Amino acid sequence: MAVIGRKGHRIHRMPEGVEVLGPRHFGFDLDYVPIEDRVKEFGV
Q1: What is the CA radius of gyration of the chain?
Q2: Are 18 and 32 within 8 A, CB to CB?
């Protein structure tokens, strides 16, 4: 599987934006993690 990601717009990364359109909005039981932090977990 390949996944492509990119940094979201600043407004969507703010607490209010994450509350409205974060992973939980789409039914996922996950907290928002910025893409740059997620990439560090994989050593990329």
Answers
A1: 11
A2: yes
